[in-house]
Specification:
This protein is of the alpha+beta class. Helices cover 34% and strands 25% of the residues. Helix 2 packs parallel to helix 3, helix 5 crosses helix 7 and helix 6 packs across helix 7.
């Protein structure tokens, strides 16, 4: 097949609709693949890797929303845009489709020109996204020497209300964090741990810094940012190099927290009274797969609440002794809860010293980033 020909997968239980859509698309130069139900559609999506999917919502057995959820959870198909087709035109159905991973929602009976116009729009968006990734891959390939990223300090962004303790094991640490203002009362926070504490880790932290500053903005959700980071970094990382990360968007105005985790230790949420809650989200390590899956978790927060990011170095060591993650997590939570009434900077500093004093060898980088809502 000509590489300029776009492939469209049509998943619809109606033979008439499948035939009609295939005919319309073929006349416009598209190559079509058809499936009569969700199960067959998922198989064909995995096999043919189409550029876009037209998915009927109301099908017997597994409906379109359920099929889309499976498509988005599969690393082979998660990046394929899905446009829903449905005779249901109510607001709740449209919102369910868009929140469930669809990029658009077209109601039946559909107009030919509308289908073609929306198809072109989303294919252009996907093409532009791929071009952006390729451009950033090229920019990263031009880096001839690894440099440690400049880590932002609390006094540089006072409105972000954060405090941090960072002690690398070697000159080029494998832990990384960044804080990015996104608007009035809205901030982005990012924490990562790179496998390998050498110049290679320094290269990755530099790359992360560049990519976050280019892409951490209001146009992308935290899960989309993680996907973009993976798309750029995965092809250029050395074999065996993986990154655990946590990406958070905090909106103090709406008191909403969005958390996306890529194999990183869970985010710790302490409410204003010191009650602790670990926020976990399912996600693949950055660099592990070409098309990873990232779950997005939303949490309600309140003024005075505090959030804590940390790497595994802080929960796998206790006063120089290797401990299990469960035991280490217990020590960290206890150290923070017992100091929840202290100013944030003092709380962070004392909690780390409670786990590993400055004259002890932790065996790994130590990072504790605290944020106050």
């Amino acid at each position: 097949m000509d590489r300029e020909t776009y492939q469209v997968l049509v998943i619809d239980d109606s033979p008439i609709d499948r035939l009609m859509l295939s005919s319309i698309l073929k006349k416009e130069g598209y190559h079509t693949i058809a499936a009569s139900d969700g199960s067959e559609g998922i198989q064909r999506a995995r096999e043919f890797q189409p550029d876009i999917i037209l998915l009927d919502v109301l099908m017997p057995g597994e409906n379109g929303f359920e099929t889309c959820a499976k498509i988005k959870m599969d690393s082979l198909t998660t990046s394929i845009p899905v446009i829903f087709l449905s005779s249901a035109n109510d607001k709740s159905s449209r919102i369910s489709g868009l929140n469930g991973g669809g990029v658009d929602y077209i109601t039946k009976p559909f107009e030919t020109e509308e289908v073609l116009a929306r198809l072109r729009i989303h294919l252009r968006i996907r093409q532009a996204f791929k071009a952006l990734i390729e451009q950033q891959k090229y920019q990263l390939s031009q880096l001839t020497s690894a440099q440690q990223a400049i880590l932002v300090q609390p006094e540089e962004i006072p409105d972000a209300h954060f405090a941090v303790y960072y002690r690398p094991l070697h000159a080029a640490g494998g832990d990384f964090y960044d804080v990015v203002p996104l608007g009035d009362g809205i901030d982005g926070f990012f924490s990562a741990d790179i496998c390998g504490h050498d110049l290679g880790a320094a290269f990755v932290t530099s790359a992360l810094k560049v990519l976050l500053r280019q892409n951490f903005n209001s146009l992308y959700t935290p899960s989309e940012i993680m996907t973009l980071l993976n798309s750029v970094l995965q092809p250029v990382l050395n074999e065996g190099v993986l990154i655990s990360a946590c990406c958070v968007r905090l909106n103090r105005r709406s008191e909403r927290l969005t958390v996306v985790d890529a194999g990183h230790p869970p985010l710790l949420h302490l409410d204003v009274n010191g009650a602790a809650n670990l926020i976990s989200a399912k996600g693949d390590l950055l660099g592990a797969f070409e098309a990873p899956y990232f779950e997005s978790v939303e949490v309600k927060v309140a003024k005075g609440d505090r959030l804590f990011f940390f790497s595994d170095g802080l929960i796998e060591n206790y006063h120089g002794n290797v401990v299990s993650r469960k035991e280490g997590m217990s020590h960290l939570v206890e150290a923070l809860v017992s100091r929840h009434k202290l100013p944030l900077a003092e709380m962070v500093e004392e909690a780390v010293q409670d786990i590993c004093t400055s004259n002890e060898d932790p065996g790994d980088d130590l990072l504790l980033l605290g944020v106050e809502v």
